[in-house]
Design goal:
globular, 231 residues, 9-stranded antiparallel sheet, alpha+beta, Alpha-D-Glucose-1,6-Bisphosphate, Chain A, domain 4
Length: 231
């Protein structure tokens, strides 16, 4: 009797997911060498933030295709997204600079024809996932959804004093700009839900990776690095 050989099954969507990494290999201030942080590795209360905009007459697949290709151009002018050379593809890392002083980044966790997701590294203002999607709901809807916690006690304090509202305004601006890309002028909808009020004090030491502190140290070290460069 011949023994039947069973081949291991490979998930059909494996190519859509980033490979497992212990630390991000890509360069960039507060990015290279950092671990990825999901919500349970964050510190402050956990939020689900959902922002939507209606883009009638445009297929969801086209919305996502254009969104990926022009992602950084939809952001407010005070923030810059340096897209990976390979584009928004699983496992690629993008760098972020905000207000000319804060440097951080994201890793592309997942992508397909109608969605893509980012995950944040240690030190980012929040720990968690951001998912961008487009779907048909009696007309195409573009959506940004975050499942996040402030990363550490300092970022938690910053969120309490208005950073969270600034984050809301950023994604509203992004969706407004996305719709305008298709010649549609409309205002996004916003839905904010505090999923968990607890602070995870076991993660308070995340402050040692805080990207604001790291960015300040990097800026202060600029003259020293300049002196060390060969003339």
């Amino acid at each position: 009797m011949t023994e039947e050989r069973i081949e291991p099954t490979v998930p059909a969507d494996k190519a859509n997911w980033a490979p497992h990494v212990e630390r991000l290999a890509a360069g960039g201030v507060n990015v290279g060498g950092r671990r990825l942080n999901g919500p349970q590795q964050g510190f402050g209360p956990m939020w689900q933030k959902t922002y939507k905009v209606r883009i009638p007459g445009v297929a969801p697949e086209r919305v996502i295709s254009e969104w990926k290709a022009n992602y950084g151009s939809f952001w407010p002018s005070h923030s810059r997204f340096n897209a990976p050379v390979a584009g928004i593809q699983p496992g690629e890392v993008g760098n972020i600079q905000s207000m000319q002083v804060l440097s951080t980044g994201i890793m592309v966790l997942y992508t397909d024809d109608t969605s893509f997701s980012f995950m944040t590294p240690e030190g980012h203002p929040f720990a968690g996932w951001i998912t961008f999607s487009a779907y048909d709901d009696g007309g195409t809807v573009g959506q940004v959804q975050l499942i996040i916690r402030p990363s550490d006690p300092l970022w938690d304090l910053v969120f309490l004093f208005g950073f969270g509202k600034g984050e809301d305004m950023m994604w509203q601006h992004t969706l407004r700009s996305l719709a305008a890309h298709f010649d549609i002028r409309t205002e996004p909808e916003t839905n904010l839900v505090k999923v968990d009020k607890k602070r995870l004090w076991r993660n308070a030491r995340n402050i040692t990776k805080n990207s604001a502190i790291g960015s300040a140290i990097h800026i202060l070290g600029t003259p020293v690095r300049a002196l060390r460069r060969p003339s």
